Amino acid sequence: MADLLDVTEAEVAHFKQKLISHCKKKFTSYNDSDAEAAIYWVAEDYHSGRGSVLNALRKTSKYKPNPGQYSVDSVSKLARQMYDELLSNENTWSLINEDHIPSP
Fold first, then answer.
1. Can you give the pTM of this predicted structure?
2. Where are the domains of the chain?
3. Quick one: 55 exposed, middle or buried, by C-beta within 10 A (0-12, 13-18, 19+)?
4. What are the tens digits of pLDDT across the range 89-100?
């Protein structure tokens, strides 16, 4: 992960685990592939560039959009619902805001 600057694999894993845990609590029909897609698109839409945890999460995601997929609208209904839920969750925004604050 050298090209991701100061972001550690542990930071990325911790951030991702928080998002996955929230999806698991909210969706009885939870599955890994839809959660991966939802998390990828949150990271894609809200990362603050190189060196951010969200950017690292996006780059290391198991989900890879197909050519021509430019937004969360291109994924399954469940993945879109998870995406919307993550963005409506105050804890997700706390994580995103923490990610946007530069380290001292």
1. 0.84
2. 2-100
3. buried
4. 887 777 777 665
